[in-house]
Amino acid sequence: MIKICTGCQSTWAGGRFCEDCGGELRDPFGEEAQQLPSTMWRYIRLQYGARRGMIVRVMAILLGPVVAGGALRIAAGWARPWSTVLSIAAIPLGVATWWTIHWSAGRAVRLWVLRRGQLNRRRLARALARRALRI
To answer: Which residue from 17, 44, 53, 125 lies 20 to 30 Å from 113 (Cα-Cα)?
Structure first.
């Protein structure tokens, strides 16, 4: 949970006292924190979005080997020529799974956290659709 120093308005991941000025850290959803400037709320949203992106990237790191292992397990049940082909395809399949989720997490953080409030979502959807159709 992010905490805010009401004295110097710096944010910290936890603790009771600010390491910059020594002031007491407060919950961002408490009564005294409601008077903070809007830039502080943007920074808090950025921190939580970045954490969400990190969690999804860890999921990608864990899911890539699981997909590769599952493909190897399926390959073991097939007849000889197909088992070899599926075994060879297992590692690129795991890497592709990892890369897709990892890339998507980074893209989502850039689009929905960093640019939130700066872009019109309809324009963004149209631009992304046009870009996808050109490729």
So the answer is: 17
Strand partners, 25: 5
Beta strand extents in the chain (DSSP E only): 3-5, 11-12, 25-26
End-to-end CA distance of the chain: 41
The Cβ of residue 25 has, within 10 Å, a number of other Cβ atoms equal to: 20
pLDDT tens digit string along 50-92? Answer: 788 889 999 999 999 999 999 999 999 999 999 999 999 999 9
Phi, psi (rounded to 5 degrees) for 17: -130, 145
CA–CA separation, 46 vs 116, rounded Å? 10
Query: What does the alpha-carbon distance between residue 15 and residue 25 come to, in Å, rounded to a whole number?
Result: 7
